[in-house]
Amino acid sequence: MEAKITAGSGMEVIMTKKSRSLLFGALFLFAILLRIYRISTVPLGMHIDEAGLGLNAWSIANFGTDRYGNFMPVCPSNFYGEQSAFYTYFCALLVKLFGLNIYTLRLPGVIMGILAVLFGSLLIRERWGDKGFFAGLALLGIFPYFITNCRFALDCNAMLGSLTIALYALIRLVKKAEAAPEQKLYIRFLLVGVLFGITLYTYIIAAVVVAVFCILFALYYLFAQKGNRLLRLKQLFCLAFPLCLMAIPLILVFCVNYFDLEPIVTPLFSIPKMVTNRTEEVGFSLAGLPSKLRALRYPLTSDGKYGSSDRYWTMYPLSVPFALIGGIFCLYQSLRALKERRFTPDIPVLFLILSEVIMFLLCGQYNYHINGIFTSLAYLVISGIFCIGGLLKRKTPRLAFYGVLGCAYGIFFFCFAREYYFLEPDYTFQIYNGASEAVSLLPESMKNNDIYILDEVGEFYMLSHPVPPAEFSLSCDELGYITDYQNYHFHESEEYSPDNVYVCNKDSMRHITLSDTSVTGCSYQVLETDHYYVFFPAE
User: Fold this and answer.
1) Looking at residue 45, what is its pLDDT?
2) Is 104 in the same domain as 233?
3) Cβ(501)–Cβ(535) below 8 Å
4) What total of structural domains would you count in the chain?
5) Where among 379, 395, 424 does a domain terminate?
6) Which of 208, 359, 374, 349 is nearest to 292 (CA)?
7) Cβ contact 138:70 at 8 Å
8) Which domain holds residue 505?
9) How far apart are CA 201 and CA 56, in angstroms?
10) Is there a domain that residue 306 lies in?
11) Are 44 and 424 within 8 A, CB to CB?
């Protein structure tokens, strides 16, 4: 059986069903490999929020509370603020099954990253056919942000995969409704509403994105398309009902913390009071508008943080002109579709981009604040590529264009992969190592001494030695950071003592001070690991 892959770009390829399956398998397996390869060591060490999330997941899995003792919280507490529930509870399930380790911490992100590639490619297929599907698998599989975003356990990293699935399901549903305008499709709209409701729990500011997007989509669906308006209103109600129902616990989180109400505890979940009210981070300021507008370039370039590369950007520099061309093309096609009252996937994709931009202007600063936008940006990139390809009417220059472009992306990917997986790139600067291994090297006679772990929050160490929430919470300061546990101290010592043990990161300069007897008045022996110095009493 043969199939023609064509999508109006001037490129046609005849493929058998078997070759299509082999191509899909190869591209998809390669994407999976890139997300699991060296997952325990790349990125090196651990992000501070990974440690907090891991401790919460372990506590929920074993005690049904977060590490501070809050029963099945809607938003688990993490240091002074909240952490989104989806990643934490997903991780808790894996911890319950396989134990607490770096793999169970990062696996939910990997799974959501793989789903982002798969459903992002399916989304692109809705616009560009099978050729778009394979182009999506190839490019989303190798784009830097789609790789790095899912390889460490930040709760917000689940938003990209979740929002991609919801957007794809909505586009499929609208196309179904347009093809059969009299079908009620109520159950399907309910399910899509559930998918958007789940997205609310992947990142606290996802509420802004989902709310703005759903309002824009509802207006479009009611007034810009043909068909029975009453029926469409009922369908929208079915979409909104589960979404609003699932939003109620999050609304209560906002009310409890913004209006300083008493915590809420039910037999199923609780809504604890956070140490600080982070709702003040959401707001629009004319004074801050210029910097926010400048930061809008970050999703196509780099924000200097852990999700993008200063050299290879989020989707490689090569993608930027295609994203701009694709944006213009999709906007033009959307305006035409609106005028003709017909549907194109370009419309909800642009709605989502607009929703993300609005959210970013309210409370964004870095790419992880806007991570739900990247599938839509990849959609624009591929649209731009196909748009240019469609302008080349003759076969030879068209094939040359795709061939050269494929080689260029391959070179960019090779350079990025070499740096990311093997050379410890400079954009992992906010990833931290724990000191547990360094402490384990101490002589047994020294392990009961007061041990000061400097330059590092206690959660890194406690992740290797988790304790019940009742013990953990008693050892925390007013912001939720653990400061002292038994003979371990995660702060400065008031004075140097010849009986204390000091562990310091090589990135700090404390080892120079600790080595200077004229400053400390003490002489220590020194152990050295790849990342730490351990100073302990001389025998």
Assistant:
1) 79
2) yes
3) yes
4) 2
5) 424
6) 359
7) no
8) 436-537
9) 16
10) yes
11) yes
- Please name the residue that has the structure tokens 């120079």: 512
Same domain assignment for residues 114 and 251: yes
Residue 430 covered by a domain: no
442 and 407 in a single domain? The answer is: no
Domain endpoint, select from 367, 402, 424: 424
Looking at the fold, whether 312 and 362 belong to one and the same domain comes out as yes
Instruction: Copy the structure tokens of residue 466.
Output: 């988790």
Q: Distance between CA 498 and CA 517 in Å, rounded?
A: 11
Question: For residues 303 and 374, what is the distance between their CA atoms, to the nearest angstrom?
Answer: 14
Beta partners for residue 482, in sequence order: 476
Do 133 and 167 belong to one domain? yes
Q: What is the pLDDT of residues 203-221, one digit of tens each?
A: 988 999 999 999 999 999 9
Residue 12 lies in a domain: yes
**What amino acid occupies position 335?**
L
Query: Which residues are CB-neighbours of 423 under 8 A, at least 6 positions away?
Result: none
182 in the same domain as 257: yes
Average pLDDT over residues 442-447: 90
In a shared domain, residues 358 and 498? no
Q: Give residue 1's pLDDT.
A: 45
What interhelical angle do 48-63 and 85-98 show, nearest 10? Answer: 60
**456 and 420 together in one domain:** no
Query: CA–CA distance from 417 to each of 42, 191, 281, 460 (Å)?
Result: 11, 38, 35, 28
pLDDT in tens, 14-56: 678 889 999 999 999 999 999 999 999 888 878 888 999 999 9
Peptide bond into 299 cis (omega under 30): no
Question: 440 forms bridges with which residues in the sheet?
Answer: none
Whole-angstrom Cα distance, residue 242 to residue 173?
Answer: 16
What average pLDDT does range 425-432 have in this prediction? 49
Mention every residue, 6+ apart, whose C-beta is less than 8 A from residue 103.
39, 40
| CB burial readout 389-417, b (16+ within 10 A) else e | beebeeeeebeebbeeeeeebeebbeebb
Summarised one tens digit per residue, pLDDT across range 279-298 is 555 555 666 788 888 999 99
Q: Is residue 440 part of a domain?
A: yes
pLDDT at 280: 54
